[in-house]
């Protein structure tokens, strides 16, 4: 690497290969906790399933991003959906749950309540 522009180009290239969209103008952001605890709990396949579903549906206003520790290790894998000024935290995610969250919540606007952190804290 000789410049910041080379680093940015490499980042964009790798995000394209991973199927991750990082778009500051996206109307919906789907964020996956990818710290060590998340990865150990299965966050990587969840991230891939989310990105694949967004790409399959060609959802142009949706970004799928990764973050570090969300701070709730016992609930990993964790996915946060930021939509219409609200944040919904989904916990104990699987690839199947990820596809349903994209369909029900992101596309149709219906929060999947049984996957949320509130459902697990009762």
Strand content: 15-25%
Number of strands: 4
**What's the average pLDDT?**
87
Largest β-sheet summary: 4 strands, mixed
Order of helices and strands: HEHHEEEHH
Give the radius of gyration: 15 Å
Class per helix and strand makeup: alpha+beta
Low confidence ranges = none
Task: Detail the topology: elements first, then pairings.
Layout: H1 4-18, E1 28-33, H2 36-41, H3 43-56, E2 62-67, E3 79-83, E4 86-90, H4 95-107, H5 117-120
Parallel strand pairs: 1-2
Antiparallel strand pairs: 1-3, 3-4
Helix pairs in contact: 3-4
How does this model look, in words?
There is one protein chain. The chain is an alpha+beta fold and 122 residues long. Strands 2-1-3-4 form a four-stranded mixed beta sheet, with helices on one face. Helix 3 packs across helix 4.
Keywords:
alpha+beta, 122 residues, 4 strands
Question: How would you concisely characterize the structure shown here?
Answer:
The protein is α+β, with helices and mostly antiparallel strands. 43% of the residues lie in helices and 18% in strands.
């Amino acid at each position: 690497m000789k410049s910041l522009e080379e680093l940015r180009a490499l980042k964009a290239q790798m995000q394209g290969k991973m199927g991750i969209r990082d778009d500051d103008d996206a109307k919906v952001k789907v964020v996956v906790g990818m710290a060590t605890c998340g990865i150990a709990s299965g966050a990587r396949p969840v991230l891939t399933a989310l990105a694949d579903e967004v790409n399959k549906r060609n959802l142009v206003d949706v970004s799928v991003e990764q973050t570090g520790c969300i701070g709730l290790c016992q609930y990993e894998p964790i996915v946060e959906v930021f939509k219409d000024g609200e944040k919904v935290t989904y916990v104990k995610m699987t690839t199947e749950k990820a596809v349903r969250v994209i369909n029900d919540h992101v596309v149709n606007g219906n929060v999947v309540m049984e996957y949320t952190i509130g459902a697990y804290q009762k």
